[in-house]
Amino acid sequence: MTDEGSKAAVADKRSALIQDAFAVLRGNDLGASTKPGPSLYPHQWSWDSAFIAIGLSYENADRALKELETLFAAQWSDGRVPHIVFNPKSSDYFPGPDRWDCSSLSKAAPSVPATSGIVQPPVHALALLRVWEIQSKNQSTLKSRFQQLFPKVMAWHRYLATARDPEKMGLITIYHPWESGMDNSPRWDEPLAKIVVGKVPPYERRDIKHVADPSERPTKSEYDRFLWLVECLKKAKYDDDEIYKHHPFLVKDAFASAIFVLASRALGTLAEQLDRPDAERKEIREWEERSRSGIMEHAWDRDHKLALDLEVNAGCSRIAVSTVAGLAPVLMPDLDKSILQIVAERLQGHDFAGNADSKYAVVPSTTPGTKGYHPRAYWRGPSWPVVDWLLWFGLKQNGCATNAEKLRAANLALLEQPNAHFGEYFETKTGTQLGSPNQSWTAAVLIDWLS
Ligand code: 2M8
Questions:
Q1: Among 249, 236, 124, which residue's Cα sits nearest to residue 178?
Q2: Ligand 1 — pocket residues by CB below 6 A?
Q3: How many angstroms separate the CA atoms of 145 and 122, rounded?
Q4: Is 183 assigned a catalytic role?
Q5: Which of 127, 138, 342, 373 is the most buried (most CB within 10 A)?
Q6: Whose CA is closest to 50, among 37, 73, 69?
Q7: What's the predicted TM-score (pTM) here?
Q8: What are the tens digits of pLDDT across the range 142-156?
């Protein structure tokens, strides 16, 4: 085949893949929101919907905004955005709305729709800005919808900057591994091991019925801990002050905090575009700056060359585990050049994308060989394309175009494999698709990468 011919073949293959990705999003469409996966995840998930909105915005701005509007319609009156908004038509997920019991325990929770009582990483402002930019030609028509969403996203950031950071360290405290989005990461093994599990009401797991190999999912003992933490949050009636007094799992999440920096920058840009008052812009700048310094001062570990999480209940000591979350500084815009160089080298090095055993130069969720590493288990080793998308975005915005392109190319090669099926995650050694196939956020980031 000539050069021209092979270029055209690649272009054809990619445009077919984009169409397949849109078909995944349509297949998971619940009408006004999108489920993360066809059967494993039947409700709306907070950070999934942000990525999904980005993907949708290439085809349908109205539907992309609807995705975020639906999520924010379920926002609590204290500003928190719940990690799950339950789809009343599905009962095939555990823990469901009855187990969370939010609206009867907390006045801040909406009674309809039913939601969970915890949060996920705050990528939403970044998504909103991307939708705004992707739809640059339709901004005047769409502006009023952005104006309506804006104060809700402000309230969300304010909640995180206050209730979730009472120490004003610039680092967001999470109450549950599910809040990190990296549920079963070895990042949480140490704090979880210290928890004395009390009486957990009986339960039946649904997740293990929906995956080919249940051993890839969290173990029974991990699930008991997850559910015990839910019981503790219920006992505190989801009240942040109460939770802070006694909760057995309080961790300053470095990755979520870096996302907060990135998202606050995006929110600031939107504030300008939407002519928001100066006082709001100032508040946003303060959030960004406080978290930026907090990460470098408290989480950045010079010896490990990684940002580490802090265990509040252990005097804010650092949890030294080598996972993808340690690369968090790269998500912060205008990162100091010397730190950027260190993090970019770490990212491309043997602990991460440069691992000699990997089939594609994608980033493992946990460094191979680390205590708690498992090549096929949930957040313990496999690579998540959506996380690589965030790292790619961080590299790009910090001027590391070549490294960013390497990461994008590796992910595209992975996702173009005939058996990739828009997998939720992938084994790095073999490139095997794991978890749920047709995962919405994988389709969404592929659309963004190829559009
Ligand atoms: C996974 O989390 C849920 C609990 O929230 C689960 O395991 O059931 C995580 O990968 C999380 O980051 C993601 O948002 C969710 C849906 O894709 O699945």
A1: 249
A2: 36, 41, 45, 47-48, 83, 120, 178, 181, 183, 207
A3: 20
A4: yes
A5: 127
A6: 69
A7: 0.97
A8: 999 999 999 999 999
